[in-house]
Amino acid sequence: MEEDAKDASDSNLERLLRQGSFVVSAELGPPAGVDRAVILKKCQYFRGVVDAVNVTDNQSAVVRMSSLMVSAILVQEGLEPIMQLTCRDRNRLALQSEVLSAAAAGIKNVLCLTGDHQSAGNQPDAKGVFDLDSTQLVNMVDEMNKGFFMNGEPVNPPPHMFVGATTNPFAEPFQMRIWNLAKKINAGARFIQTQPVFDLPLFEKWMAAVRDQGLDQQAFILAGAMPVKSAKALIYMRDHVPGMRIAGEYIRRMESAADPQKEGLAICAEIVRQLRDVTGVKGIHIMPVKWESITPQLVEECGLRPAVAGIQ
Amino acid sequence: MSKVGKRFALFVERHRTLYKGFLLLENMIKKPVLRCQSCGQCVLSYNAFTCCMRCPKQMRNGPCGGTRPDGSCEVYPDRPCIWQLIYTRSVKLGREKKLLKYHVPVDRRLERTSAILNSMAGRTEGISMSNELEPGEDRSTGRI
Fold it and tell me: Number of folded domains in chain A?
């Protein structure tokens, strides 16, 4: 990773990772309405608590405020956004335009995803674009960083994005996913965020394979963690969210808990503490879906401190 | 061969009826046997002869994150994840190395045209690249 230092982006997240800090990112879901105050309120939960904030892009294929605009608001609010960018809703022209706009708005991190299929959302009659796939999207942003649009014409001046990608350690075909991860890293991904971990042994096995290939030396890996409020939520995820694997132990613990919210927090904190000790994990990515308010408490409970108090 | 092939492809393409006949024949085999989706830039040889464009998200470089525990597709639970199929078949056929290739974005102009003739005419050169950049290889220009 050292040889890339010269092309480093202006991203604070990247700077922290290169310094060797254990970073914390959290996810913010934009509102399905026009109220800016909702975003500002969510910002309060993250300010001074996490190092970077992922802004989802019409997550679960449900229409919300755009990732670009909410990320720009976060910049104004002094937070460091990671703009999520999916291939479902945009062709390559729109994707490149989005990166240019993001750079102009002061956004320095982009997470490249394929996106949930439109059939998973509440408007399944929509057309899915999928002009590019996530690996090609990573390559697109990387090439723009180097000064080229997809057609080879120059971007002047070019953006300096810290490019991220995602991976799911918990779904078949396992081996193929490691190769796919290698492809994404070769295509230009510099940080990787994983699906939330609810099966630690499997995650450790995956991480060992990642280390075997030396991939943890080529990109910073942030392990996912998700606090849940109820056993019902866990069971729903197990049965209805494809690609999620949840150890039965957690479901049993949630079911028998007197205070499920407290237990959910305790389980998440426990998983995060264990993830911290896995070799090669450089940070934690918290996904408090519809429970952003729990983030400060969770970060404190896990003993995670943001590397910089209050991100400038 | 490649020069002859190119001349042949260009000849066929100049004659509309001939081209239509060629395409019809190609599709008659490729559609039922390989469930070809007519992207016009075939990567079957990298994918253990299993068309990745059958994926609802048209993933060309590997699976999306939603494959179900039983190996079925997140969008169509009654169908297998195409990348699960590609992976198991590649292992069976000893073609795993081919899976490491990076495939550049699809040239949408070639959709519904003859992949065989496109290949012969040299239009699909550089659509698949090795995982690590080789000397002289540049992804930014690796398109058709």
Answer: 1
